[in-house]
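Amino Acid Chain and Its Fold in Token Form
===========================================
Purpose: to set a sequence beside its fold so the mapping can be learned.
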Amino acid sequence: MIKTVHVSHVGRVRSVNEDSAWIRHLEQGYILGIVADGMGGHLAGDTASRLAVETLAADLATLESGLSAHSLTAALSDAILHANEVIFQTAARDEKYHNMGTTVVAVLLNDASGIIGHIGDSRAYVISKGTVRQLTEDHTLVNELFKNGQISKEERENHPRRNVLTRALGTDAEVKVDIDSITLGKGDVLLLCSDGLSNLVTDEQISKVVGAADNPLEERADRLLHLALLAGGDDNITVALFELPDDTVSLSEKGCDA
């Protein structure tokens, strides 16, 4: 049984939390998790991220059970594209929402396997056996510069325009969704997060905290959030964790002598 938890914090600088997060174990047996980081200022940013979560949750709540990976991919992609339409049209109808948008990273799990859909710079990582692997690719200006060899990895991490998005949900009538697949092994943890975490907490810190399987999942999520706050907390911070527990229990833990 996959364990889940999510936490969110406004941070130390912002007055409004424009992040939205949502996790549910659906009746059909799937697990749906969503993290969205809104932009556009007060009202607009939090509205965009909320609309993204609400649209995906509503569209995917009625999925049939036992769908193939291909069908789950299509369903998640269609839901994200629908959210793009909802946000774009809402902004077009009301001046106070002009140019609002949001990132989105969402996972639809069927047991240990699943599909990840994402737009923007909110990320998905898998933490496995002490290693951290980023599953998503940031849709940002500096990542494009890095891929084209115009800046180094270190320059990418510290670039003053590192938060400029090249793709977002709701800012254009049409958008492309990146899709990745994932299969969790025993003891693996999937992390979804906004850039309020990934900009301030290193892979090494993520590995150390999330990999501490003896600690409750809730405690590990809170610890990640706390590390981002300690590092400055200059943005909203959202963390969502999905763990496939390692069922291996030692003889001593069973109360037997080895």
The first strand starts at residue 3 and ends at 9. The chain is about 30% helix and 25% strand. Helices lie at 44-60, 69-93, 141-147, 153-158, 195-198, 203-210, 217-230.
